[in-house]
Amino acid sequence: MVFSPAFRPATSHAALGTDFYDEVSAATFPAQRIRFRNDRWAARVGLEGLTDAEWIAHFARFEPLPGSFPQPLALRYHGHQFGSYNPDLGDGRGFLFAQLYDTDGRLLDLATKGSGRTPWSRGGDGKLTLNGGIREVLATEMLEALGVNTSKSFSLIETGEALQRGDEPSPTRASVLVRLGHSHVRIGTFQRLLALDETSNIERLLDYTIATYMPEVQAATVAGRAVAFLQAVGGKVARMGAQWMVAGFVHAVLNTDNINVNGESFDYGPWRFLPTYDPGFTAAYFDHTSRYAYGEQPGVLLWNLTRLAECLLPLAPQADLEQALAEFAPAFRRAFVEQSLRRLGVAARGDERDDDLVHAFWGFLASSQAPFEQVIFDCYGGTARLDKAVHGPVGHVYATDAFAPVRSAFADASPAEGLRLDHAYFAGATPCTMLHDEVETILGAVDKDDDWSMFEAKITAIRAMGEAYGREAPTNGG
User: Fold this and answer.
1) Distance between CA 18 and CA 7 in Å, rounded?
2) DSSP code string of 221-271
3) Could you give the residue numbers annotated as active site?
4) Above 90 in pLDDT, residue 436?
């Protein structure tokens, strides 16, 4: 077994103690076939030298990685699901398998989805459909390429089982996913401790999270640390939310147990990307009230952060926590402008002209209903590419009065430094997209004919897009 010098295992989470997790064992799978292996990120954590047989041993049979946990840990948490509190959550079909450092020195988790029953399975089988695994790989690869701070799909292995599900034709094929992420401390992790009235453990988790992930958060008192922590989490979550919005991404299940305090997007179920700008666009068929619609996401994130603030009330004054929450809205607005300029490939000037350009651009997207990703692709870098775009698939929209304010705003803007407009990706007429019909076509080919060619071609296309946007060396820091 070959580990590179970059391999640095850890067991940090175990220091919290058994109030925070349960030791569990993985299910035994009848077959193990690698369907996705993320060698780019394996190289960043020192695991690129594993043979396929060794990969399967660690990520399908879950033999421990040397120096990390001898036994997987199913993490404990509660959460609000669609606004209703649920105390019966926790890792019900996954666990924390290992921790290790990447080449930037950040502590990352290898955690599973579909690895079998745990004490928190609530009667379920603890398994993941192959379709669900493929969808998570596609989501994380696309989001990473678009510059969203996201967990990474590290491994997807088909397990040879037939699962019964009520929301897709059954029996359906099974898989086990391993994700690489910058912690799995959730808002729901804190909520469980509040519900159990474990104030000392709230303080313990607070200090662990600060020391491990946010050393920049410093204060002499517990109350000071709690408030500074909430401010830091709010800033990180605001940036994540802004990145979703400019990517046209709808997470669809923004429960408090799905919000990482590091502001890293993770746990992808019925997600979708916008075809056209639509604040009411809802991804999940079961979201009957559109609680988690595209345009509702910033407000829901603040609602979730308010739940985190409630967990810190035993440690800090309410007025101070409310003041920290009040910083979310301006932080989100700043991040939205920053991320919009990044997606459009124009340099920030630090004055009202940035706001004017962003306002004009999003107003045009709303009024024109032009294809979301196509317009961003055409506008990337400003007027230089617009001159070409007028001859493209939606070129007519750039000659309308509705687009005139955008063109005017672009005329006063400069391309951002380091753009790769000579990349082959930008020579094409259309962007790489990940719309619902495309995903369904990929899943259908796998299901009907075991044809993985479209999946593999899409991953190749996404990574080419990521290179063009300068994301070939991504970091979990966003």
Assistant:
1) 26
2) SHHHHHHHHHHHHHHHHHHHHHHHHHHTEE-----GGG-BTT--B---SS-
3) 257
4) yes
Strand residue runs (E) in 11-90: 21-23, 33-37, 73-75, 79-81, 84-86
CB of 9 closer than 8 Å to CB of 98: yes
Phi, psi values for residue 13, rounded to 5°: -65, -25
The yes-or-no verdict on residue 473 having pLDDT over 50 is: no
Q: pLDDT digit string (tens) for 252-273?
A: 999 999 999 999 999 999 999 9
Q: Out of 20-34, 68-82, 165-179, 333-347, which region has the weakest mean confidence (pLDDT)?
A: 165-179
CA-CA distance, 69 to 51, in Å (whole number)?
21
Q: In whole angstroms, what is the distance from residue 306 CA to residue 297 CA?
A: 14
| pLDDT score, position 475 | 40
SS3 category, 323: helix
Higher-pLDDT residue of 292 and 386 is 292
CB neighbours of residue 297 within 10 Å:
21
How far is residue 252's CA from residue 281's CA, in Å, rounded to a whole number?
10
CA 197 to chain centre: 31
Phi, psi angles (nearest 5°) of residue 250: -120, 110
Q: Mention every residue, 6+ apart, whose C-beta is less than 8 A from residue 353.
A: 409, 412, 413
pLDDT (0 to 100) of residue 477:
40
Burial class (CB in 10 A: 0-12, 13-18, 19+), 275: middle
CA distances from 399 to 311, 375, 410, 437, 457 (A): 53, 13, 14, 29, 34
3-state secondary structure of 444: helix
Q: Which two tokens stand for residue 325?
A: 């929450």
Q: What is the distance between the alpha carbons of residues 231 and 326, in angstroms, rounded to a whole number?
A: 9
Distances (CA, A) of 367 to 7, 134, 300, 370, 411: 51, 34, 25, 8, 21
Tokens of 8: 């640095």
Q: Write the pLDDT tens digit of every residue in 355-406.
A: 999 999 999 999 999 999 999 999 999 988 888 899 999 999 999 999 999 9
CA distances, 331 to each of 38, 149, 240, 302, 334 (Å): 33, 16, 11, 11, 5
8 A C-beta contact, residue 358 and residue 245: no
Residues 41, 152: contact at Cβ < 8 Å? yes
Question: How much is the pLDDT for 384?
Answer: 81
Q: How far, in Å, CA of 194 to CA of 312, rounded?
A: 8
